[in-house]
Amino acid sequence: MRILLTNDDGVFAPGLAALEQQLRHLGEVIVVAPATEQSGVGHSITFLTPLTCKSIHRDGRHWAWAVDGSPADCVKLSIGELLRESPVDLVVSGINNGLNAGINVLYSGTVAAAIEGAFFGLTSVAVSLEYSEDPDFQSAAVIARNVIGGIVKQPESNGGLFNLNIPTAATEAPRDLKIVPMGLAQYGHSYDLRKHPEGRE
The domain spanning residue 154 has which CATH number? Predict the structure, then answer.
């Protein structure tokens, strides 16, 4: 199985690295991720400016593609160009540092990347870990690998879109997996009033 791995926290994010290591137990992993953090960009795509990508090397070999664009760009560029000659079977996005539940999924670049994969008819999974100052991405990646491994074994999941949210408590002790409808809790509306260095509010 060939797996396309992306995220919205950027190609050097620790959640991406942890998930890559675990997904290698399931198949070949190809990393194509944003060059910089793209949190909250939703399903935006690069349209009016050039879209560039750069090969990132580790240990003297190609390790990942860093795309100067959004998570959705990463998936579109991968499927349409970079991996056109050797298609992928699964798209995974994450691990995001912070849950993507409720209407947050409309803002989330993590979820948008998975949605883009599903647009291409590929089984796609967004993975998010409850926000913490010291997130345990290693444990979360093991949980994600096990859940994703179970998903791909189910024929009815083929081409489906899945949004996996991992509570911090699940990284500390085993927890049951629950399938729930999307909540409608709203994202925060508060703004901090600050002074610009030039004096403007």
Answer: 3.40.1210.10
